[in-house]
Amino acid sequence: LSQCNIEEKGCSCLASALQQNSGSLKVLDLSINMVGDKGTKELYIKCDISQLTKLEMYHCGLTVLSCQNIGEALKHETSSLVELNLSNNQLKDAGFALICEGMYAWCRLEKLNVSRCGITGRACVHLATVLCSLSQLYKGLTQKTDWQAVELRELDLSMNCLGDQGVREISAGLKNPCSHLRALNLSHCSLTDDCCAELASGLASKESILSELDLSGNDLQDKGVRKLCTGIRSPHCKLEKLSLRTCGLTSRSIQFLSAALKANPQHLAELHLMGNNLENSGLKVLVELTKNQKYCLHTIDVCAD
Predict the structure, then answer these.
(1) Is residue 271 assigned to a domain?
(2) Number of domains comprising the chain
(3) Domain for residue 187, yes or no?
(4) Would the pLDDT of 144 be above 50?
């Protein structure tokens, strides 16, 4: 039902119709409809969105009020939601905090997209609580099965002004031995090199299983990549895809990346570097690594698509 000109009033009628057969509905896409908060409330009350497996509400005119209902749906012990897209809505920090609260208990959510939602670094403390919670909850417990691990595998926080402090909060979650997080998008999040040491520490943790990291569109510069590579070179780092498009890099970053790959050749397969000031001589070093079977690296993206 994406782009069907559905507004709040129409959503009420839709919710009533879905109510008759809500148990069999598993995927609902209302993207690019002005559903609004009232429409979301109607859906929550009438057709039990917690029983969906996938809910797409990209650009639906939602605010913190909608997050109250969606957060409550996530809290249900019988919730089936595994994919949730709330991108391009003005959820702000307060709304994101409610979503995080919903993820904290018995949540099966595996994929969350909150790109361009007006979230700042202040809200990352709530996400950090979710990502770090299980290691704290397990402390002192003999029966770990009393708790269900947060299932989150893919998280898109791009185009939110998280800043370095926000990412420092999130990085601690990479060290959680119960974490399932494999893909993290932090592109265009107003980051600098100041957050790279914490990210590197998370990547170097033996508990981290992160395989995809997107830091494109942040002012990391060469010194940020140098810090990041201290994590990539660790034998515990399992990163397979790294995106550093338009990060203010020069060929010095190629030197750091090449050295890290030589120290840990078994994981990184894709490296995206488009939009940086890189010299051909530096790139040749990486190209040579793709020809060596010792290294997993097979894709180096330095050109516009």
Answers:
(1) yes
(2) 1
(3) yes
(4) no
